[in-house]
Amino acid sequence: MADDLDRLFRLYHRDLQNIAYRRLGDRELAADLTQDTFVRYAGLGREQRSEGILNPRFFLMRVLGNLIIDLARGRKRQGTHSALADVQDELFDPRPGPERLFELRQQLQRLHLALGELPHNCRSALLLNRVEGLSHQAIAERLDVSPSMVSKYIMRALRHCARRLDLLED
To answer: Which of 71, 124, 126, 136 could make an S-S bridge to 157, C-beta 3.0–4.6 Å?
Structure first.
């Protein structure tokens, strides 16, 4: 699966990112959505990939398009705020229950261990991007690698963490 994903990433990453950039006008957001597209592909079961996807390029483009649509819907929803939403916000208790807290703590421990297993550059690229919000270019300058390598580091780190959190099958 990893070889297949790496091959698809090398083949289609640039095209998908360019499509996303043309539609969004934001290079960083385009890079993030492109990575999320490959994470979604990696999250599919082996049977789903082998039986249901006849054309991986088309599938990846479709996933990217859906992510862009979801983003637009989310932005639209944030722009419209109703009185009903205000009431719902007041009534809703956002704190998780004890069972959910326990699950979240376990997941956080597994994530911490997974991050510790990563090579330095992979871990750094992921944390600098997802925690500190740095652009791929800024991370590339910090790690003294190309922005393309930063994308590969982040993909590898995301895939590893997802496996460790049991989100992906091996």
So the answer is: 126
